[in-house]
Amino acid sequence: MSEEFYNGFAEYYHYHQASVSRDDIRFYTELCRSNGGPVLEVGCGTGRTLIPCAKAGAEVVGLDLSEDMLSFCRKTTGVENDDIRRRINLVKADMTNFDLKQKFQLITTPFRPFQHLATIEEQLACLSTIRKHLAPGGTFVLDIFDPDLDVLTDTDRELEFGEEPPFTLSDGREVTVTYRNPSVDPVMQVVHCEMIFSVNHSDGKMERLVQEFIMRYTFRWEAEHLLHRAGFRVRSVLGGYNGEPVGSGELIFIAERI
Ligand SMILES: C[S@@+](CC[C@H](N)C(=O)[O-])C[C@H]1O[C@@H](n2cnc3c(N)ncnc32)[C@H](O)[C@@H]1O
Questions:
Q1: pLDDT tens, 106-119?
Q2: Which listed residue, of 75, 110, 153, 237, carries a Cα 20 to 30 Å from 50's Cα?
Q3: Can you tell me whether residue 206 is helix, strand or coil?
Q4: CA 237, CA 251: separation in Å to the nearest integer?
Q5: Which tens digits make up the pLDDT trace of 183-212?
Q6: 255 phi, psi to nearest 5 deg
Q7: Closest approach atom of ligand 1 to CA 45
Q8: Which CATH number, 3.40.50.1820, 3.90.1150.100, 3.40.50.150, 1.20.120.420, labels domain 10-146+218-257?
Q9: Fold of 149-216
C-alpha cells in the first residue's frame, strides 16, 4: 500500500457527503472538554474534527502521513482566528512510528485511520507508539467500523455502490462519489477499496478519479484483545457517537493505559 494514498484527493475527501454529514463532531469536542488537553489526533486528514476541537478550546496536534491532506488542513485552518490557529500544530508522520516528545491527555483516531494498517504488526506498532504518548490517566479513543458480514461476503466485486449526493466545488466542478470493493481477503481481513470520484468540469470535461486504498477490518473482541495486548484497559465500547450500543455500525473503544 502506498504510504500517501490520499495525496491528490484531499479536496474531494473534505467535501464529500460521508465526511460532511458524519455525526461525530460533538462526540469529539465533548471528549476534548471533559478530558482536557493536550490532544493528539492520529490521522487528522483535512482537519474535519481537529478544527472543531481547537475551536472548542483544545490544544491539538494533528498527525497525518499525507502531505496533501495536511496542506489542505493548513489552508482550512488559515481562515480561523489567531487563538484557534495557535492551538493547532500539524505533524507529518507515520502513525506506526513517531516520537513527538510530548504526552497527551487525549489521543483520538476519528473516521478509521487505524484501519489503513494492513497487518497486526503495524497495528501493534501503532498502539504501542500511541501508548507511549498517552499521559497517565489519559484517554485513548480507537474509532473503527463494525464489520458488516453482508458487505464482506458480497461476491459482486464489479458493483459500484453507495452513490452520494453530488457536491459542487468553488471552481464549478460537480462531483459524484461511488464506492467499489474489488476484492476482500478474508484471511488477512483486508478489503481493497475504491472511492470513485466522477468529476464534471465547468467546461464540460468529464473525469473519473479512483482512489485505491485498503481497510483492515477488526471484530469487536479481536480489537479488545489487541488493545489489551498493547497495554490498554478498555473502559467502554460504543456502537455510535450518540451512545448507541455495539451492533449499531461503529466500534468506538474508550481506553486507558493499564
Ligand atoms: C479516513 S481519513 C480520516 C481523516 C480525519 N480523521 C477525519 O475524521 O476526517 C484517514 C486519514 O489517515 C491518514 N493515514 C493513513 N495511513 C496513515 C499512517 N500510516 N500514518 C498517519 N496517517 C495515516 C490518511 O492520510 C488520512 O488522512
A1: 999 999 999 999 99
A2: 237
A3: strand
A4: 7
A5: 999 999 999 999 999 999 999 999 999 999
A6: -130, 165
A7: 27
A8: 3.40.50.150
A9: N-terminal domain of TfIIb (2.20.25)
